[in-house]
Specification:
two-stranded antiparallel ribbon, Rossmann fold, globular, 6 strands
Length: 208
């Protein structure tokens, strides 16, 4: 297997029936990661974000290569993710949110819209977008999944780096290609003073 091929993760099931994902060693020193988080359930979101940023640092992602921004709620995550993906400045995006089930259908509507929207952004732009939205029945369930060793932000960060490396392998490390508009892998857009994705050798400022 070529040395540049990112290692895959393995799935295992614990005795309690919980699905665990294990990752081989990852090196994100050349990865640029965007983190988009919601302002709802701030305590939980901040804890997840801390888990993400700590893990990214452990995986050698430089602080200057991490872009973080906020949106009002989970419904707005897909649009913000698409804006960031289309900027061509990141290799992967993590959408962070927390939806707690209430007494109305609002939870189901927002969960479905957020999950399908986030998936669509990844498929349309060929930029990996990690679904980092907790969908839980109670606030206590959210706190368990946002703290300590069970902080889901840890695995979301690992997933982002692994998928960023996979994207670089597929599209060519250090070369941004415009696939957002369905133009194919070969066409490149951008350049000095032009919008769109970066040309070979060009490194656009991180963010929108």
């Amino acid at each position: 297997m070529p040395a540049t091929t990112p290692r895959r993760h393995a799935l295992s099931v614990s005795k309690m029936g919980k699905m665990d994902v294990s990752f081989d060693k990852l090196d994100g020193k050349d990865c640029r990661v965007g983190v988009i988080k919601t302002r709802w359930n701030k305590e939980i979101i901040d804890s997840l974000s801390d888990g993400i940023k700590t893990t990214l640092a452990d995986l050698n992602v430089e602080e200057d290569n991490i872009f973080e921004t906020e949106v009002p709620g989970a419904f707005e995550l897909p649009m913000a993710a698409k804006f960031l993906a289309m900027s061509g400045t990141v290799d992967a995006i993590i959408c962070v949110g927390c939806l707690i089930k209430g007494d109305t259908q609002h939870f189901e509507y927002i969960s479905q819209a957020a999950s399908s929207g986030i998936m669509s952004v990844g498929l349309q732009t060929s930029t990996p977008v990690v679904f980092g939205v907790l969908t839980v029945n109670t606030e206590e369930q959210a706190k368990v999944r946002a703290t300590g060793e069970d902080n889901h932000g840890i695995s979301w960060a690992q997933t982002a780096v692994e998928m960023a490396l996979l994207r670089q392998q597929a599209l060519g490390a250090g070369v941004k290609k415009n696939v957002a508009g369905g133009l194919g892998f070969g066409q490149q857009v951008g350049g000095a003073g032009k919008p769109g994705f970066a040309s070979p050798g060009e490194k656009k400022p991180l963010g929108f």
